């Protein structure tokens, strides 16, 4: 019975390095990727979130409508609707209007800020705003978590 022949390290490396290595690139589903190596960088194909969204429950407004608001001189905006998380808004906010909006819901067209409901009073279909807000107040912008095209995974990992 013969045992394996021991080969010097240099010769073993020469033999291994002379072997033709042609890695095969395959496209596989994510659940089949465990233990595989990426052949190319992976970038996000979409913006996350895919729309400007409310970070609080409150009222979507045009920030310019709140300028000059104060405790002694609140701005009064008409409440013209409601948008919940999962809704696709089909309303455009006009000057002097507000829309009740839930956390995570997409901002309606025309809105650029969300005032938390704890910071306002609501009376008979109107909302009273006691402080001015700036654009993007209470808003997470499109792609804020992950912008489209951002590298997620590197080739070779």
UniProtKB/TrEMBL annotation:
TM stretches of this protein: none
InterPro entries noted in UniProt: MoeA-like, MoeA_linker/N, MoeA_linker/N_sf
Record keyword Transferase present: yes
Residue intervals of the MoeA N-terminal and linker domain: 8-157
GO biological process: Mo-molybdopterin cofactor biosynthetic process
Pfam families noted in UniProt: MoeA_N
Superkingdom in the source lineage: Archaea
Keywords in alphabetical order: Molybdenum cofactor biosynthesis, Transferase
Pathway the protein acts in: Cofactor biosynthesis; molybdopterin biosynthesis
Any one GO molecular function term: molybdopterin molybdotransferase activity
GO CC terms: cytoplasm
Protein name: Molybdopterin molybdenumtransferase MoeA
Originating species: Thermococcus paralvinellae
